[in-house]
Design brief:
Number of helices of chain A: 9
CATH topology of the largest domain in chain B: Serine Threonine Protein Phosphatase 5, Tetratricopeptide repeat
Largest sheet of chain A: none
Shape of chain A: globular
Strand content of chain A: under 5%
Order of helices and strands of chain A: HHHHHHHHH
Number of strands of chain A: 0
CATH superfamily of the largest domain in chain B: Tetratricopeptide repeat domain
Number of domains of chain B: 3
Shape of chain B: extended
CATH architecture of the largest domain in chain B: Alpha Horseshoe
Strand content of chain B: under 5%
Oligomer: heterodimer
Order of helices and strands of chain B: HHHHHHHHHHHH
Largest interface: A-B, 62 and 55 residues
Low-confidence stretches of chain A: 1-5, 104-113, 115-121
Number of helices of chain B: 12
Structural class of chain A: mainly alpha
Largest sheet of chain B: none
Distance between the termini of chain B: 80 Å
């Protein structure tokens, strides 16, 4: 199974730089990767006998993991973006198979593991517990706070854009709001 | 506890791997030596992690909306052929491929190659905030997206004439594409040559230069442009350029 038949209209350099740039650029390039390699889902349903839903779920997780790896500097373009995504996706598919069958998957299917350090602090929780806890913390923030924090800290928009997107009058006010919202989040996390 | 913006931004930069080596080492030393600082860092890290997790949940939902409609996924039946049947089948496929390839090559010309390979890239204008060019830049993108390449070209020409314009190379690339759409390959070449060598758009410019020569039906220069692409390590159009080069060499020899 190869990716050579699927070509991206952007170079790997552009994709990595775009994701690292944050904001609208990052959204654009993450969407671009997601759209370009969607064909992998059909291939995985055949190769791994996954359901379409399972293969799609693994694919979305793989694209998100790729974004994370670019942002935290673990992926700097040593291999092609497509190859790297393919490896992550294979591992996600194997996780999905394990989850389905609860049996050990033969090792010849496995690719060398790509470290994913994102889950440390919440790692004592199960995925469902973690999801519920995060939802609870964020839901208590209110819409503007949630958007300001997401835009600043997840999407990495600059403060001018954060202010515009949240309807705040200036970047200074958006910046003050960010720290106030963080305090609110801290309170929610202590409850 | 109030959020200390300075320390929070430092933690964010540390986790985002954007600190330089010296600052990173200073951060880690301080973390080991100062328990108050370490406690703050741990608190802020947990907050950032909650936001990252929430963001990824939201992103996952958004990406799931982008899946194309489900395609039929009929299970693949495993077939067991005897080796000699497989070899015979492979030989037939090979012969048919060679036949098809030579027939196609004979019938095709550079113009056909252009039509097969030319696809205008998406042009989503990145923000040129706080710059007087913001509006015309967005305007050029809007014309381009609407398929009005003449107006898009005019807007881009005006932009690249402004010496302070920050997206010069990107604009020259899209200008080149507009000219190709308008069947003005000489102008396209002129614009594409102005994409700056250090720019991230160099590989795109190389690809559209090749397409410009195909539109011009200038086989010798198209060959040179394809060879230039193949000299670049892991060029994003290596596969396409290889195929075009093979066909161009065939045209030249016939």
């Amino acid at each position: 199974m190869k990716l050579t038949s699927t070509t991206s209209e952007f170079t790997d350099q552009q994709i990595i730089a775009g994701i690292k740039a944050g904001g609208a650029q990052q959204e654009r390039f993450v969407n671009h990767i997601f759209d370009t390699y969607q064909g992998l889902v059909i291939q995985a349903t055949r190769k791994h006998k996954l359901t379409e839903e399972g293969a799609r779920d693994a694919y979305t997780d793989a694209v998100i993991a790729l974004r994370r790896q670019v942002l935290n500097g673990n992926f700097r373009g040593e291999s092609a973006v497509s190859t790297y995504l393919y490896r992550i996706y294979q591992n996600k598919c194997i996780d999905a198979i394990r989850k389905m069958s609860r049996q050990r998957v033969p090792t010849e299917y496995e690719f060398p593991d790509i470290a994913d350090p994102a889950k440390d602090a919440l790692s004592h929780m199960s995925v469902q517990e973690e999801f519920a806890a995060v939802q609870r913390y964020m839901d208590g923030l209110g819409e503007i706070c949630k958007q300001v924090l997401m835009d600043c800290l997840f999407w990495k928009y600059d403060m001018e854009e954060v202010a515009k997107r949240s309807g705040l009058p200036s970047s200074k006010i958006a910046s003050d709001r960010k720290y106030k919202c963080l305090q609110k989040l801290r309170k929610n996390m202590k409850k | 506890m109030e959020t200390n913006p300075h320390i929070f931004d430092l933690v964010e930069a540390y986790l985002g791997d954007t600190l330089d080596e010296e600052s990173r080492q200073a951060f880690e030393t301080r973390y080991q030596k100062e328990s108050d600082f370490a406690a703050l860092v741990d608190t802020y890290s947990r907050e950032i992690q909650v936001i990252q997790t929430a963001g990824e949940n939201d992103l996952k939902n958004a990406l799931n909306q982008r899946f194309k409609p489900a395609q039929a996924t009929t299970p693949v039946r495993k077939l067991s052929f005897r080796p000699y049947i497989m070899a015979a089948a492979a030989a037939v496929v090979l012969l048919l491929s060679v036949f098809f390839f030579t027939q196609t090559a004979d019938q095709q010309g550079t113009a056909d190659l252009f039509a097969e390979n030319f696809q205008a890239p998406n042009f989503v204008a990145r923000s040129a905030q706080d710059s007087p060019e913001e509006l015309p830049w967005q305007e050029a993108a809007a014309y381009y997206q609407a398929g009005d390449y003449e107006k898009a070209a005019k807007a881009l020409e005006a932009l690249v004439a402004t010496t302070v314009f920050g997206h010069f190379s990107e604009a020259q690339l899209y200008l080149g594409v507009c000219y190709l759409k308008l069947e003005q390959p000489y102008k396209a070449l002129g614009a594409l040559e102005k994409v700056k060598p250090g720019s991230v758009f160099v590989q795109n410019a190389q690809w559209f230069r090749l397409l410009s020569y195909l539109q011009l039906e200038d086989t010798p220069n198209a060959i040179k442009a394809a060879e230039a692409i193949l000299q670049v390590n892991r060029h994003y159009k290596t596969a396409e350029a290889t195929k075009i080069l093979q066909l161009l060499k065939k045209f030249e020899s016939t």
